[in-house]
Write a structure and sequence with these properties.
The chain has 248 residues and is α/β, with parallel strands linked by helices. The protein has helices at 17-28, 42-52, 68-82, 105-133, 145-148, 154-174, 192-195, 199-207, 217-228; strands at residues 8-12, 32-37, 58-62, 87-90, 136-141, 179-186, 239-242. GO terms for molecular function: 3-oxoacyl-[acyl-carrier-protein] reductase (NADPH) activity; NAD binding; quinone binding.
């Protein structure tokens, strides 16, 4: 019996990267997995098969997480397909970096829509189901830059700060219904995006981390398992920074 056996997790933006790592870790702990991505292409189908190989039910759903109506429809489909939604991980996210004076309205709006509005969309759609089930766990993927800001990422930092405040607010509203809401704030994580950075930039970042290394996607996935499972049954409205001590 895994920590999440018998539960269904819905994870947004999970065809690759951190979202995929969370889906695979949840599957190892026995959860059935529904995940979304903008399109479910060959990569998405491969992720679906990889999750199913863990011995659980898995299905990818094509959805623009920033679209309210599409989100309502996808959540309805997931409920019909899986029977319940016990865990929601709001992981969908993009970056469109730029200094404030050069940032366009489109860059601002796109990041806020995908990173923050999408979480509102999915929480709004899933909470009624969780209320009827008398419980659930919501996990918002934030970032350390949502805690302390970052030059050149005003849109991204604002969206991630919003994810933290959203989790705290939902935790306060939904606590009496047995629904917990928390946020994970990753630091410098080794992904395809960070590996593409120039070596001098990587060294500069790592030099600021007390553990003197970047994290990996499994570090985030392990934290997500804790927040999704009954191990954290008395934890709500919290922000767990998984950053090697970078932001103490």
């Amino acid at each position: 019996m895994g920590l999440l056996t018998g539960k269904t997790a819905l994870i947004t933006g999970a065809a690759r990267g951190i979202g995929k790592a969370i889906a695979l870790k949840f599957a190892e702990e026995g959860a059935n997995i529904a995940f979304t991505d903008l399109v479910i292409d060959e990569n998405g189908k491969a992720t679906e098969a990889e999750i199913a190989a863990k011995g659980v039910k898995a299905k990818g759903f094509a959805s623009n997480a920033a679209d309210f109506a599409q989100t309502e429809e996808v959540v309805k489909q997931v409920k019909e397909e899986f029977g319940s939604i016990d865990i929601l991980v709001n992981n969908a996210g993009i970056t469109k970096d730029g200094l404030m004076l050069r940032m366009t309205e489109q860059q601002w709006d796109a990041v806020i829509a995908v990173n923050l509005k999408s979480a509102f969309n999915f929480i709004h759609a899933c909470v009624p189901l969780m209320m009827r089930q008398r419980g659930g766990s919501i996990i918002n993927m934030a970032s350390v830059v949502g805690v302390h800001g970052n030059a050149g990422q005003a849109n991204y930092a604002a969206s991630k700060a919003g994810m933290i405040a959203l989790a705290k607010s939902v935790g306060q509203e939904m606590g009496p219904k047995g629904i917990r809401a928390n946020a994970i704030a990753p630091g410098f994580i080794d992904t395809a995006m960070t590996q593409a950075l120039p070596e001098d930039i990587r060294k500069e970042w790592i030099g600021k981390i007390p553990l003197r290394r970047g994290g990996n996607v499994e570090d985030i996935a392990n934290t997500a398992v804790y927040l999704a499972s009954d191990m954290s049954s008395y934890v709500s409205g919290q922000v767990i920074q998984v950053d090697g001590g970078m932001n103490m």
